[in-house]
C-alpha cells in the first residue's frame, strides 16, 4: 500500500493529526476517537508498518508520535490541510460569537 492510500483513510489522518506534535498512548488515541480501541489499534499498525508513526515502549504501554521525517514530501500537504481545518473552526467560532452579540 502506498503512502497516499494509507493517509487517504480519514481515521488514519485523524490519528496522525493527534500525534503530530505530541506523543500519545494508544488508549489516549482511542479515547479521543469515535471508533473502538481495536479499530484504532489496526490503524496504528498500518501507520507503524508504513513508518509514518514512531513507537516508544514504556512498561506495557506504547506511545505514538508522527514520524515527520518519513512523511517527507507529504508533510507540507498535511500541515496545510490541518491549518485550513483550524482556520474553518476559528471562523465558525467567531461567527457564532458574533451572532450571539447584541448590536
Structural commentary:
It is built from six helices and three strands. The protein has helices at 3-8, 10-18, 26-31, 37-49, 68-71, 74-99, and strands at residues 24-25, 53-58, 61-66. The termini are far apart. The mean pLDDT is 85.
Shape, per Cα inertia axes: globular
Number of domains: 1
Beta strands, count: 3
Radius of gyration: 16 Å
Task: Kindly summarize this structure in a few lines.
With 103 residues, the chain is α+β, with helices and mostly antiparallel strands.
Please describe the structure with a list of short key phrases separated by commas or semicolons.
6 helices
Topology:
Elements lengths: L2 H6 L1 H9 L5 E2 H6 L5 H13 L3 E6 L2 E6 L1 H4 L2 H26 L4
Antiparallel strand pairs: 1-3, 2-3
Amino acid at each position: 500500500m502506498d503512502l497516499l492510500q494509507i493517509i487517504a483513510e480519514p481515521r488514519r489522518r485523524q490519528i496522525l493529526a493527534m500525534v503530530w506534535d505530541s506523543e500519545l498512548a494508544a488508549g489516549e488515541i482511542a479515547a479521543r476517537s469515535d471508533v473502538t480501541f481495536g479499530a484504532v489499534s489496526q490503524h496504528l499498525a498500518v501507520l507503524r508498518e508504513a513508518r509514518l508513526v514512531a513507537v516508544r515502549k514504556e512498561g506495557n504501554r506504547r506511545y505514538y508520535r508522527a514520524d515527520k521525517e518519513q512523511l517527507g514530501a507529504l508533510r507540507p500537504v498535511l500541515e496545510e490541510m490541518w491549518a485550513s481545518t483550524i482556520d474553518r473552526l476559528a471562523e465558525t467560532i467567531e461567527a457564532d460569537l458574533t451572532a450571539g452579540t447584541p448590536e
